[in-house]
Design goal:
Layout (H helix, E strand, L loop, with lengths): L1 E6 L2 E4 L4 E9 L6 E7 L6 E6 L6 E3 L7 E6 L4 E6 L8 E8 L15 E2 L3 E6 L1
Parallel strand pairs: 2-11
Antiparallel strand pairs: 1-3, 3-8, 4-5, 4-9, 5-6, 7-8, 9-10, 9-11
Length: about 130
């Protein structure tokens, strides 16, 4: 089992940047494909980005492609989401998730992920 804790959220103006971190404890995060999801009020939780166990494969949602970058440091058991050129529509609670199934490539469906953090709020003002 792994425990996940997100940090780095906050209030930022449109066009600004934030870097979210997801620290894993318990079993080492290098065993898991990792993902970032987000959920705005009244909407379903949606995929943002995912990264394979080695970090060699990444996927991003079309809505964030070119603006958000997922990365990981397995020595630190931490996954990051670098966000630039933020827009008001990026406002949401951002969740980190781990998939323990050992797929060769990371999944984009939230139903594939077994472990979740509590989330961190990102608010982008216009």
């Amino acid at each position: 089992q792994v425990q996940l804790e997100e940090s780095g959220g906050g209030l930022v103006q449109a066009g600004g940047s934030l870097r979210l971190s997801c620290a894993a404890s318990g079993r080492t995060s290098s065993r898991y494909n990792m993902g970032w999801f987000r959920q705005a009020p009244g909407t379903e939780r949606e995929f943002v980005a995912a990264i394979s166990r080695s970090g060699g494969t990444t996927y991003s949602a079309d809505s964030v492609k070119g603006r958000f970058t997922i990365s990981r440091d397995n020595a630190k058991n931490t996954v990051y989401l670098q966000m630039v050129s933020l827009k008001p529509e990026d406002t949401a609670v951002y969740y980190c998730a781990a998939d323990s199934k050992g797929w060769r490539v990371p999944r984009v469906s939230r139903y594939e992920y077994d472990y979740w953090g509590q989330g961190t709020q990102v608010t982008v003002s216009s």
